[in-house]
Amino acid sequence: MTVPVRVPLIEHLPLATPFAVHMFTSYYCNFKCRYCIHSLDKEEQDKLRFKKQTMPMEIFQKTVDDLQAFPSQVKAMIFAGHGEPLTHPAIADMISYAKLHNAAERVEIVSNGSLLTPSLSDKLIEAKLDRLRISLQGLNEEDYLRVCGTKINFSEFVSYLEYFFRHKQHTDTFIKIIDIALNNPTGSKQFHTIFDSICDTAAIEYLFPFIDQIDHKELSGELQNTKHGDGKAMHVDICAMPFYMLVVLPNGDVTGCCAIQPPVIFGNVMKKTLLEIWNSEERNELLVTQILGRAANPVCKNCTVPDYGMQQGDYLDEYRAQLLRIFRIEGQNHGTNGRISGRD
Asked: Where is the Radical SAM core domain (predicted)?
């Protein structure tokens, strides 16, 4: 399977249909990676209002059913979030339901891969999963214990990934490793030696600061920006995420980004349709905030994802004037009282 090349977002705004819907179906994880919220103690997690929970099947099915009302098909439904998707007991059934109802052009899972037993692999392959992205935390048992505080059988883990790759039908498999897991000069070569032959694509990615309570510089000396790759953050005033995506949380709440503390809850899928939520005043207000300056929202102001993690084609700062025209925003005073007077 070939993943489409990302096109400049500005050329497609405003969107009648989101490009992507991210399903945060589980806030449980079997790892405690040092850069992740799961490494924090319960008191710190409570301060962030992080509650471990899984998405009920009825919420998931309602979300998929609601997607039928959009004028075009969503490009991607991505199972990811602040937990391990494979911890959800119904994950294969969810993939099957999404594919059966044509929820998206591509249905994808982002996983640490450690729970991908041959039995589960068979179920996901049968469900016709389109893409599997595996995030590695090391190249041996010692690396995993150091990075995510968990003992694993590394050779068995590699055999799980190889089983999926050898038995898959059309699923595109992508295996990546984070830079802090490569703790020796030969790590990159070792990574490609082990994994190049058991996936369609293998890549090294870089850690960027996501949680204020964690000292990321202690973990990695290379905090890299995806645009410049020079180890320095590039400040971004307009976050692109709410312009093209929706995130459905385990309880059915819907927001516009992957922040642990959502800047705005647009609504809940059990109370409104997803189409109503996409066109809601709550979402429009967040778009206004982004165009006039995301610093007006306290969550967006302190979020590092736009500065480190945005993809090519999603940078909108230079198009502020065009965005003001596209969304016909009044009250252009870089505050929160701007409003959309009418959308194309």
From this structure: 15-230
pLDDT in tens, 54-77: 999 999 999 999 999 999 999 999
What pairs with residue 133 in β-bridges? 110, 174
- Averaged pLDDT score across all residues of the chain: 84
pLDDT of the residue at 36: 65
Distance in angstroms (rounded) separating the CA atoms of residues 18 and 69: 12
Confidence band for 31, pLDDT divided at 50, 70 and 90? confident
User: Do residues 163 and 122 make contact, with C-beta atoms less than 8 angstroms apart?
Assistant: no
**Calpha distance 29→250 (Å, rounded):** 14
Q: What's the mean pLDDT in 85-92?
A: 96
Q: Which one, of 88, 86, 94, lies nearest residue 121 by Cα?
A: 86
Single pTM value for the model = 0.85
Instruction: List the structure tokens of 23.
Output: 């399903």
**Does an H or E element contain 106, and which?**
strand 104-111
Residues 92 and 123: beta-carbon distance below 8 Å? yes
| Residue 213 scores a pLDDT above 50 | no
Q: What is the DSSP secondary structure assignment for residue 54, as one 8-state letter?
A: B
Q: Token pair of 80, please?
A: 């990811």
Q: Report how far residue 223's alpha carbon sits from residue 207's, in angstroms, rounded to the nearest whole number.
A: 6
Show Cβ contacts of residue 118 under 8 Å, excluding neighbours closer than 6 positions.
160, 163
Q: What whole-number percentage of the chain has pLDDT above 70?
A: 79
Q: Tokens 């399903």 appear where?
A: 23
Residue 254 identity (one-letter amino acid): V
SS3 of 311, please? Answer: coil
Q: What's 18-327's CATH class?
A: alpha beta
3-state class (DSSP) for residue 268: strand
Residue 277's nearest CA partner among 254, 252, 244 is 254
3-state class (DSSP) for residue 306: helix
Contact 131, 3 (CB under 8 A): yes
Rounded Cα gap, residues 230 and 255, in angstroms: 31
In which band, very low, low, confident or very high, does the pLDDT at 344 lie, cut at 50, 70 and 90? very low
**Could you count the other beta carbons within 10 Å of the beta carbon of residue 7?**
11
Residue 336: is its pLDDT beyond 80?
A: no
